[in-house]
Amino acid sequence: MRPRRFGAAGPLRGTIKVPGDKSISHRAVMFGALAVGETRVTGLLEGEDVMATADAMRAMGATITRSDDGEWRISGVGVGGLLQPERALEMGNSGTSTRLLMGLIASHGITATFTGDASLSKRPMGRVIDPIAQMGADISATPGAKGSQTLPLMIRGASPAVPIAYRLPVASAQVKSAVLLAGLNTPGVTTVIEPVPTRDHSERMLTGFGADLTVEEQDGERIIKLRGPADLKPQVIEVPGDPSSAAFFIVAALIVPGSELVIENVGLNPTRAGLIAVLRQMGGRIEELNPRVVGGEPVADLKVSHSQLKGIAVDPAIAPSMIDEFPVLFVAAALAEGRTVTSGLDELRVKESDRLAVMATALSAAGARVEEREDGLIIDGTGGAPLPGGNNAAIATHLDHRIAMSMAIAGLASMAGVEVDDTRPIATSFPNFEALLDGLAR
Ligand code: S3P
């Protein structure tokens, strides 16, 4: 454990740049490792989660190296060419690595065992097991709470796998991507039907790598078809900055009086940009400067100025486009004027922690007024006055990086500071978070 107290801060001013997008980085490594030839990646997020993906792809035959200038080179094995890993694949805290790689292995004639940390080992894997078992993979998982299937688990891939048409029962980009990755080495057309759109990085990047993939809209649903076996061609990829990491600094600048912060290189893919829309609706001043396209994704620099936020009822339909940003939105709501109501957020209970329960407890300990509902939180804000802070016991972050970072931001807007029990999980997604914050909040 590495506890730390985050104290009240003066205005956040200046310019920062956030690290590479985690979702895009995982996919760049996986797809590069499946292309024949050398893929080169700049801006890759060098966090523990992405490194877990890189280690797993190395264990299955890819060569992955980093040069001194920060560029990553990936020599792939080709779709169908994954080697049998000799050891268990150690996934650490990373749900994305686990679920996407389960899909990939499902259509290769190899057997792999997945293990993870205490947080990942509680998370439900049945949502991926169901479709890949239909495709022919054989999975044995560990029984978890409430009938769930969890890590450690073992997969024996099917060779050949059979294509399926799968309608997603939960709005999950990880499940969608797992089925598409299984489709890469499956002869015929694998179809995923998405009633609610989720982040589309897999579709964009697979198309860039030359996969035969189409996306159609029908009756408000997205229908994604992938023809296998795919032949992926190596790419040169520049990973844009992660909007989910930028989120902490966006909220920090909005709630700390006198702040005016420019955050460079923020990915603004519409399937990820929900937080910005909601914060603007609350009265947040967020300007987009220098809009451009990086790595096939829309990007801009954001200028964020301190704003008096107002509570709103957040439309549950926007949730998938800001699913990882709710913990820090709850912090913004705690400083807003009036009541913020969120609903339709059952998925938050199965993230790295139960983010509804954990944030309700954490914000209450910092002096916010929070009511936990089955599928959301209701928060009555301070109207801009700092939170009391000064919690006696350190906030329990439950191995959840986004809880630790969110409560660090709450600490900046508190009178007596907020202590979190463990900052180590921050390295899974945002290794230089504390350094950036310390550079600004002096
Ligand atoms: C991710 C999808 C989301 C998100 C996660 C990353 C991805 O998970 O919470 O941090 O890269 O596909 P779900 O698919 O479970 O919603």
Brief write-up:
Strand 10, helix 5 and strand 11 form a beta-alpha-beta unit. With 442 residues, the protein is an alpha+beta fold.
Question: How would you characterize the overall build of this protein?
Answer:
The protein has a four-stranded mixed β-sheet. It folds into two domains: 4-20 and 240-440, Alpha-beta prism (UDP-n-acetylglucosamine1-carboxyvinyl-transferase, Chain), CATH 3.65.10; 22-227, Alpha-beta prism (UDP-n-acetylglucosamine1-carboxyvinyl-transferase, Chain), CATH 3.65.10.10. It is globular, with a radius of gyration of 21 Å. The chain has 442 residues and is of the alpha+beta class. The two termini are 25 Å apart. It has helices spanning 22-32, 48-59, 95-106, 126-134, 173-184, 201-208, 243-255, 274-281, 326-335, 355-365, 401-412, 433-440; strands at 4-6, 13-17, 37-42, 63-66, 72-76, 89-90, 111-115, 138-143, 149-156, 165-167, 188-194, 212-218, 221-228, 236-238, 260-267, 285-294, 297-305, 339-341, 369-373, 376-380, 418-420. Helix 2 packs parallel to helix 3 (95-106), helix 3 (95-106) packs parallel to helix 5 (173-184) and helix 9 packs parallel to helix 10 (355-365). The chain has twelve helices and 21 strands. Helix content is 29%, strand content 26%. The longest helix has 13 residues, at 243-255. Bound molecules: shikimate-3-phosphate. Shikimate-3-phosphate binds next to helix 5.
